[in-house]
Amino acid sequence: MNILQLIAYTGIFIFAITGALKARTHKMDIFGAVVIAFATAYGGGTVRDLLIGIKPVNWVNDYLALGLVLGAVIIVFLFNANVSKFRRTIFFTDAIGIGMFTAAGIEISLSAGLNEGYAVIMGVITATFGGLVADILSNEIPTLLRRGELYATACLIGGIAYIGLKEAGLSKNINLFVCVMIVVGLRILSKWKRLTLPEI
Prior knowledge:
With 200 residues, the protein is an all-alpha fold.
């Protein structure tokens, strides 16, 4: 397993945990948790693959990825605690997930022949559209569109940094790691310091 696969599978597991925790906050049953976890983990990558013509999409025939989603739901199911405690946990797992999926989405898109600009866009879509679908299914205002959240913006900045490091000749592994750290760091910093984009 190479570093890209490790990041992708870790991102799937973390996003599945995020989705299952979200399902718990909405008092869903275990089937609902599987649906939300699956949407969170696979939604962005599925949209990316459909847009750039990768067939079959990333999760088809991948039993390891499916097992990670089901495992995440089982872990959340067995870990019984007060719902209010999960709000902060969801934020941090989501921040790590979008960092990993931004990096993985960019690298997969570059490998599929996209130019660097569109690869960054695909990285942002990979990172954010799973959460968008999960929020819609949970009847929430999507975090992607919520005022006061540096969400897609953090992914975009991390993606641009990834391309800049790639052009500078650094190794792919370093680029992936730095991209993840920038996205996670910006996401946490924006929440802590209440950094927002200007209103239209």
